[in-house]
Amino acid sequence: MEMKKLDFSETFKDAITIGVKNAPSVIAAVALFLVTIWIPYINIGTFIAITLLPTQLAKGEVINPLGIFDSKYRRYMGEFLITMGLMVIPTYIAFLFMFVPGIVLSLAWSLAYYFLIEKGKNPIEAIRASNDATYGSKWTMFAVALVFGVAAAIVMLIFSAICGMINVGFITFVVMFALIVIVMSVGMAISASYWKQLKDNVA
């Protein structure tokens, strides 16, 4: 099987298409997640749901913002947390080696949760599948993340400066909350494009 590699322009074009099409529902889902993140037990389910949202976007499914509260997501809690644990410690250690190995590992394993749930793989298989699927595409993923991160940071700084001049706490909170929601939503559209392009690289 020929490995498909990410295309920089295709990724952004695809992400914009996905993002624009699903903007209201994704923004609503992210907002609901952020305002309920303090609720014990419920929050693990919504966290898993938000993490997996890009797979739904990649399939072109209609997103129901209230779907993040579906109890089915809490069913995956054990496997999800095991996978997280298996990735967090090695990634942290890799970051100790002057950051670069940690960045590479983070990109290589970024699709692991999708393989875990969508493809029904166990935690080790999911991590390995993500590593295989992203092979040859990590530089593109890094470039996309860098451009998106810089653009998001500039926008946040501009609005933060404007809010600082207005100096009204409530307005600052609302504006910054809205920006965080939008940034998370765009990030999900980019992840959806990654998944859409790379998921078939692994049998």
Note down, in words, how this protein is organized.
The chain crosses the membrane at residues 26-55, 76-93, 138-162, 168-190. Keywords: Membrane, Transmembrane, Transmembrane helix. This protein has 203 residues and is mainly alpha-helical. It has one domain (8-201). It has helices at 8-35, 42-58, 77-95, 100-108, 112-118, 123-133, 138-166, 169-198. The model has no long low-confidence stretch (mean pLDDT 90).
Morphology call:
globular
Low-confidence stretches: none
Our count of helices gives 8
What is the total tally of β strands?
0
Question: How confident is the prediction overall: mean pLDDT?
Answer: 90
Structural class designation:
mainly alpha
- Distance between the amino and carboxyl termini: 9 Å
User: Helix and strand succession?
Assistant: HHHHHHHH
- Outline the biggest β-sheet: none
| Integer tally of domains | 1
Give helix % range: over 70%
Beta-strand percent range: under 5%
Oligomer: single chain
Whole-number radius of gyration? Answer: 17 Å
